[in-house]
Amino acid sequence: MLTAVVGINWGDEGKGRMVDLLSERYDVVMRYQGGNNAGHTVVNNRGKFVLNLLPSGIFREKTVNVMGPGMVIDVEHLTHEIDSIREKGVEINPEHLVISDRATICMPYHKMLDILEEQRLADKKFGSTQRGIAPVYSDKYMKKTIRMGDLLHPEELKPRLADLIEWKNLTVVGGYKHEPVSFDEMWAWLEKYAMHFIPYIKNTTTYLTDAINNGKSIMFEAQLGALRDIDFGIYPYTSSSSTISAYAPIGAGIPAQKLTNVVGITKAYSSCVGEGPFTCEMFGDEAEALRAAGGEYGAATGRPRRVGGFDIVATRYGCLIQGATELALTKLDILSYLDKIPVCVKYDVNGTMVDQFPSGVELTEAKPVYEYLPGWKTDISGCRSFSELPKQAQDYVKYIEKAVGCPIKYVSVGAGREEYFEM
Ligand code: GDP
User: Fold this and answer.
1) Matching CATH topology for 104-196 and 266-422?
2) Under a CB-based contact definition with an 8 Å cutoff, are residues 14 and 412 in contact?
3) Is 12 a catalytic residue?
4) pLDDT per residue over 71-120, tens digit each?
5) Ligand 1: centre distance to CA 250 (Å)
6) What is the pTM assigned to this prediction?
7) How many whole angstroms separate alpha carbon 162 and alpha carbon 131?
């Protein structure tokens, strides 16, 4: 099996717990895009861990974890992430963590430019995570970044880095009127945080090809959701990478036709962090109650997330764009307090009813059209099969499945590892 596990909506769909659950079934777990701009919490018998960069199979001894060519890696962040895991007794070594020679290094000046730009934008800011992701991906496509494999050739890397910094300072000093980036500081940073990864760096395509030929199963773990995809998301309020399953073979370095299935993660209601169009958004007491029930506050910042009912229009689109072959529906238990369950069934775009996800100004102007399904008003966190769910909850699951056009295979009814069932 070569499976992509992806988000269907705006992110925070509860991917962490599904990925943790599913990763057990695969020999190799691979991250294929993004950087440390998102993450998830994994709770296991060794403690609670926040993973931003490492693939989520890192806690399983027999799983090989691969960081793919499509990733952008802040090696300082990765060093700290690994240290915090090692502190709790988890061994991390080159047998069990492989980093692509083609993965891009996210430098301190990328992070700095992210912050400078958000400061310049002031109240027009996008809500960037300020981890340097947009600047480093932009540089990648300008062909002006360094890659993990360059670390293997420091003598060639030095003059190249000097050239890159000279170019970068045109923007830093000329544009933002900031102190110039210093070559010596950047080189010292690479020596401190990057060079110790040399034993982990490999040609991951060769590695994966061998794994596939030997019948190993591989899970491709995406970060963020379909609606944050640079091409198909709510641009410009997207991430700077491709978050969709179609990018998995590219960001991983395997032939496109090898992927066997795509598990899409969607939540029983909607949430969205930061700015940008979020049509199904609810406000006031209704929103506050859902936010509190679902614990929808940013993992890092504690910032309240925007919330709304399940959005059929956005989720059907998410499934389509992801090519989802099966869905995991998370946090169904959160809706148990509601007398009636809100579902956004259509968008009203200036008086026209729309059921295809729009883009641009149409999306910004869309208003939600809500319908309500009967609630079940009882705790369902103990249910371990579909038949154990109350009738109204069964109807809700079946309704969503039909409306979005993709089979629901997993339903989670609590944060605990066992609190889910397969359909
Ligand atoms: P992610 O980044 O996609 O993993 O999503 P979040 O950052 O929003 O994390 C989801 C949170 O919800 C975590 O604290 C999970 O432990 C929790 N969670 C996941 N699935 C369920 C569920 O089915 N029910 C409940 N009550 N909590 C869940």
Assistant:
1) no
2) yes
3) yes
4) 999 999 999 999 999 998 888 999 999 999 999 999 999 999 999 998 99
5) 28
6) 0.94
7) 22
